[in-house]
Specification:
The chain is an alpha/beta fold. It has one domain: P-loop containing nucleotide triphosphate hydrolases (Rossmann fold). Helix content is 42%, strand content 18%. The protein has a 7-stranded parallel beta sheet with strand order 3-2-4-1-5-6-7, sandwiched between helices. α3 links the parallel β2 and β3. α1 runs parallel beside α4. The chain starts with a helix and ends with a helix.
Length: 217
């Protein structure tokens, strides 16, 4: 009985999240705002990718806004805000992901009239965010070569939920003795219809290709 109750509660929770995600999506679309949920592990380079994308968007006359998610602290929020990008910080406490409810409140705190692209940096985790869509147009997962070439095989669920898979820090592949072709192969095996983009955020490599895959240019 206990297991059945737990399963039913989980189904109810996921369904409630999906309903809220749909509401978030309708709101953003009604305001003409394109949106991306950027997931990935700690240290994969999500923040730097967002910084690079945001500045390129600004250079092209777009108006990006960012929601930064972390369990605690505001380091990423400070980095983004320092670039003159409107940003809202979300601390999840004990939760290992942003859910649609937290995203809803962050969107409410954002001046939607001042942005036309919303980038959401999810909490650094390759497990929890998978089951909790936020209502964005696209979902992307970022991993770095420093995590090894078996990360996709170890965490297939989140990659199955991704429209775009980003392999970052490609400049370190040789040093880390990581085979990029193995990561690409695993990505295509787990999620055959996703776009796989190789980036080196530190040196600005692959950023425009990533933006195109995310529907931002």
């Amino acid at each position: 009985m206990h297991q059945l109750v737990t399963i039913d509660m989980e189904k109810d929770l996921l369904e409630a999240n999906r309903r809220l995600a749909n509401e978030n999506h309708r709101l953003l679309k009604a305001r003409g705002i394109r949106s991306v949920d950027l997931m990935g592990s700690i240290g994969s380079g999500k923040t730097l990718l967002i910084e690079r994308i945001s500045m390129l968007l600004k250079d092209r006359g777009h108006r990006p806004g960012v929601i930064t998610g972390d369990v605690a602290g505001d380091d990423d929020h400070k980095r983004v805000s320092a670039l003159g990008i409107p940003a809202v910080n979300v601390n999840t406490g004990k939760e290992c992901h942003i859910d649609a409810h937290l995203a809803e409140h962050a969107i409410e705190d954002m001046d939607l009239g001042s942005i036309d692209v919303l980038l959401i940096e999810n909490v650094g985790n390759l497990v929890c965010p998978a089951d909790f869509p936020l209502g964005t147009d696209k979902r992307a997962v970022v991993i770095s070569v420093t995590e090894g070439d078996d990360m996709i095989r170890k965490h297939p669920v989140i990659f199955r939920e991704a429209d775009v898979i980003v392999i970052n820090k490609s400049d370190l592949a040789g040093v880390m003795e990581v085979d990029l072709d193995v990561l690409k192969r695993d990505a295509n095996t787990v999620r055959p219809n996703s776009r796989v983009i190789v980036t080196d955020a530190k040196h600005g490599v692959g950023i425009e290709e990533l933006m195109e895959a995310l529907g931002l240019i």
